[in-house]
Design brief:
The chain has two domains: 123 residues, CBS-domain (Roll), CATH 3.10.580.10; 78 residues, Alpha-Beta Plaits, CATH 3.30.70. Helices cover 32% and strands 27% of the residues. It contains seven helices and nine strands. Strands 7-8-6-9 form a four-stranded antiparallel beta sheet, covered by helices on one side. A three-stranded antiparallel beta sheet has the order 1-5-4. A two-stranded antiparallel sheet has the order 2-3. β2 and β3 form a beta hairpin. It starts with 7 loop residues before the first strand and ends in a 5-residue tail after the last strand.
């Protein structure tokens, strides 16, 4: 999964010299929380948040004064974290967590080509992990040694189960690993019976209908 697969292309932007009132209107109209600020030749020079604009406007005087004397670049953050379109989605998510931000402008060849938000990432991860599909979700814990996933997949395949997604992550016990799978084509009982014979395997959680 890459940023380009779920980013919003040709995003709404504002200029550094834009009227803050106009920027707020754009944010409200589009239901956005932030807008990239773009200078010459499509270069991202900042990002402005709706909350920051609203605080600024509450202290800045009458609309007439605002229009004559104030600009978006007085409010925007100039330290902008960006990503390229081919950035892996999990790396973009890590950047958001690290910098405590909810969106990233997507830049290619020095120009903005999109924007990706935390909501875009949540939707993509939910889709990849099979959320809302009704398929069987199985979490097991196995020894952290080569061949465990291959054996698990083989056991499920032998009962006509199809693994539609798989995620492995650290267990709370040393030398163990957790594996979460989405399985289609075989019911819960059949799959559980198939995997129960794997040495060292412990079933941690099962979610889904008997017919999944």
């Amino acid at each position: 999964m890459f940023v380009r697969d779920c980013m919003t292309r040709d995003p709404v932007t504002v200029r550094p010299e834009s009227d803050p009132l106009a920027a707020v209107a754009l944010l409200k109209c589009g239901g956005f929380r932030r807008l990239p600020v773009v200078g010459t030749e499509g270069k991202v020079v900042g990002i402005v948040a709706r909350t920051d604009l609203e605080v600024f406007l509450s202290k800045a005087g009458s609309p007439g004064v605002l229009k004559r004397q104030h600009r978006v670049d007085q409010v925007m953050s100039r330290e902008v974290v960006t990503v390229p379109p081919d950035c892996p989605l999990e790396e973009a998510a890590s950047l958001m967590v690290e910098h405590k931000i909810g969106s990233l402008p997507v830049v290619e060849a020095g120009r903005i080509v999109g924007i990706i938000t935390e909501t875009d990432i949540f939707k993509q991860f939910a889709a990849v992990l099979g959320g809302g599909t009704g398929s069987l979700r199985l979490t097991v814990q196995v020894p952290d040694v080569p061949g465990q996933l291959a054996e698990l997949a083989g056991r499920i395949a032998r009962v006509n189960g199809n693994i539609s997604s798989v995620v492995a992550y650290a267990a709370d016990r040393p030398e163990r690993i957790n594996i979460t799978l989405r399985v289609e084509g075989a019911n819960r009982g059949t799959v559980l019976e198939a995997v129960s014979g794997q040495a060292g395997l412990e079933v941690l959680h099962v979610w889904g209908s008997e017919g999944a």
